[in-house]
Amino acid sequence: MSRILTMSRAGREALDWEMERRPEIFCMGEDVYKFGGIFGTMDGFGAKYGPERVISTPISETGFIGMAAGAAMAGMHPVIDLAYIDFIGVCYNVLLNTASKTHYMSGGAVKVPMTLLIGTGGGYNNAAQHSQCLHATVAHIPGAKVVYPSNAYDAKGMLHTALRDENFVIFLTHKGTAGVGWMGTPIKTTLSEVPEEPYTVPFGKVKVYREGTDVTITGLGMSVHESLKAADELEKEGISAEVVDLRSLVPLDRDGIMASVAKTGRLIVTDEDYLSYGVSGEVIATVTERDPTVFKKPPVRVTTPDIPIPFSRPLEQAILPLAGRIADAARKLMA
Amino acid sequence: MELTPELRKGFFRTMTLSRAFDDAMIALYWEGKLPIFQFGAGPLPGELHCSNGAEPVGAGVCAALGPDDMITADHRPHHVAVARGVDLDRMAAELLGKKAGLSQGKGGHMHIYDPAVNFASSGIIAEGMGPAAGMALARRLQKRPGVAVAFIGEGAANQGAFHEVLNMVGLWKLPVITVVQDNEWGVSTAKSESTAIERNADRAVAYGIAGEWVGTNDPDDIYLAAARAVARARAGEGGTILEVKTARLAGHFMGDQQAYIPEQMKQVDPIPVYREKLLREGVLTPEEADAIEAEAKARMAKAMAFAKEAPYPDPSEAFHHVFAGEAA
Description:
The complex is a heterodimer. Chain A is of the alpha/beta class.
């Protein structure tokens, strides 16, 4: 049996299934017991699993994420809700120096299996400290896996995969894709048929959302959906766009990116993270290093520029990598 | 909780072995680094933070612990590791970057892990606090016994992690003992230049946990205070800040000339003091004390021979262990 679910409900189903069967999994974070986590991933878990396994913490990210790392080293699998990625500043040391490095620094003697759930992104007028993506900032750390589903089917399958992984997994969800009420109506393309039974979606494989022949548009999180919107517009104009969801940053499916660009010969990389030193450059470098002759035209980046996210609606809408900017970039590439 | 002669002889044995470890490492450290000093040169490269002077803390606290208990140490971990019974041969090999090391040469001296005795360390100041509390939380969830001990320096008490973690230790009554090793110096910054209070143990009241302050660098006093803290933790009475006034005789790291330490602040070596105390009180004879020292040197010589003879890892191994579950 499958149903149409939001990403939030689909992720919750995976976590619930694993928690029912595996006593080593517990949830921790601000407001998880009464609120069920910022995106409802732990909705109702407080009543079902009790305060021992669904631990609401003080506002002390350095402290409780450090504790999660220790609990993981001692045989547990903590699932941490960090709400917004903008808050990694107050716990970055644990991510950077403990959760991601302990397995390596111990020569494999100590494992740190933990899953960190984080919301990313803007587009809803929350300004520079609550709208960032910052996925490149975490993907840059060796020893942390970073995944980023963009639809309900992947959210459930990838969360099952994360919970069965022996490593530190940073599990990102763009706030606008989660399908929680306070972020507005769920975007149609984030909803999907989700089987009731558990299944895994492997890390490190791109998903071709929509096949095309003229131009490859890569995206992740929200920018996948903006790319799909752009592809609909472009189709009316006779431009066939292939939309590729990266889905996973660490590991990154470089073969999958290469295969699509080799087919279309044109590449637009969309990314809601900042332009410089990030995923967009990494995707282009991947193709360039392997075979720059596949490019019929120089590749293009459509991203948030290197500026803090502004508050006012017209300012924010102007800088986000929305469908209009993506379609314009494709038109120029095809001209 | 009684100070038996056997226990006290054990303190002396542990401290002497820890000192033998550091002395042997210091001797090797200078190989290849003279006349021009450079961290990366010689058979023992990198920074080296020796424990000389802090041995009573490792010996006294670890004697109060059992095999189920868990430890995190900091960038100066040798005395705690030796007292905890971390594999000496493999720890020595780790310092030399050898494949036979505890971490196969991936950690070095600040990152000592020996899961067989529940021992871990981190080179980032106060970064052992969260993990220690988390290990205690894990045991609570697993319904298994175990007290966690975070060994930190007095400088780490000024880190945010100290405050955040101890607030939760108090809130959740976790069996966590924070051993603040006050050696007076955070690199070149004196304790009095770092905080307005004299005793970090006084901060315990702010977290609703117990505070213990030991003003002597003597394993007898440290053991008794630690045993009280462990008893409270096992009884479900929660955590303790146990602050000990200890010493740092070999500088922050090797090569630290310590010109910033004024004459009146010169520190005393606790091991000869304790040896004299045990002789004076008839716990040890001079012959027994000499034998313990000779035994420690011989044990350490064996560890150094093991470490020196062990091969280096193959350079390709740099790519192994980034993630668990991947083919190495």
